[in-house]
Amino acid sequence: MLSFFGLLIGLALLIYLTIRGWSLFITAPLCALGVALSSGIAVFPVSADVNFLNAYMQGFSSFITAWFFMFLLGSLFGKFMEDTGAADSVARWVVDRLGMKHAVAAVVLACAILTYGGVSVFVVAFSVYPMALSLFKDADLPRRFIPAALAFGSVTFTMTSAGSPEIQNWIPIKYLGTSPYAGWEVSLIVAVLMATFGFWWLKKMIGKAVANGERFEHREDDPEVPERDYPNPITGVIPLLVVLGCSFFLHEALQQSALIVALLAGVLTIAVINFRYFHNLNKAVSDGTTGALIAIGNTAAVVGFGAVAKSTEAFQVAVEVMTQLPGNELIGAAVAVSVIAGLTGSASGGQAIALPLLAPHYLDQGVQPDQLHRVVAISSGALDSLPHNGYVVTTIRAICKETHARAYWAVAALTVVIPLAGVALAIGLFSVM
Asked: How many domains does the chain have?
């Protein structure tokens, strides 16, 4: 019982302190330490048993090992787009041709295309942010909604849809013997409705803020590229297409490494075709490197908390209970994956933990693998987006330089509420098929 309360209090405290703006490098290990102590886990590695230091640092270091080059190259790509003026150029072209009322749509669409093209959601935020900043600036929209626009286009109707190359759509294949297109008919309907309702809600929130007098807020560290330095807008689109194309065509052969190649190709492309437009190349490289380290460090700190949480007895009991819920099997699977993803702050983590238990249990009961695949995928992208989620922390704090207090609630509306509605719709459609 003490382990259970320790886990809940530790998670609640981490969420609270994150919203309050505390440093994750301090709060995440401290909250994880409290969780470990309440579960009787040793602090120091005095034996071969599970201990706090090893569990936390293994989670922390494994994330950096797996994602460092993606974060570094993604951050450099975004900074190069920003410093050369390519992002501003594309943004102004969009505003001039489509009008300011479509600025938000351009951000969401850019994220959706890159995400569905196989670019990691973390990297999409790095890549599109410079253009989003320019679009919101030119359209005079409150910048606190930029994280919501980036997240909505990346981790909702694209990340978990049929055919998506994102890992959240591929993990179930290993356990269910399905394909990335499992349940595509229902997935298409759900994706369209999620995109439509979510975009309407995003526009409504921004419109309300503008009506209340909110405008774009300029900051001292915002990039300033002289008007005469703007390159042709096509030079901002080509690097994005290079990243998208390389990721798409190399995905099967290189798996996750394809993204490293794609991002490197994108960085080199923009450096070559826009070299004479660099405002301050050395500063762009320095800022991009620093931004990548901060972003991956914040995310790894939260992953370390999840690693300690997974080591507790309370977590193991919670997983067992969640995976044996009575009633409708699809509802049970959705609840189990959502709760576990919320506890770990990871959609892929929720799937990887739950599916080894869920898959044989529900398949033995006659649940259709395609239906289970799609429900599990969509549900994993709901409660995972609580304030301590790595993507949420990285996007709000490290990339957009916002605070959770200002930006998170719009993010939550689009990345928690909308996916929950989507999974409910999916279960309802599967039930009548």
From this structure: 1
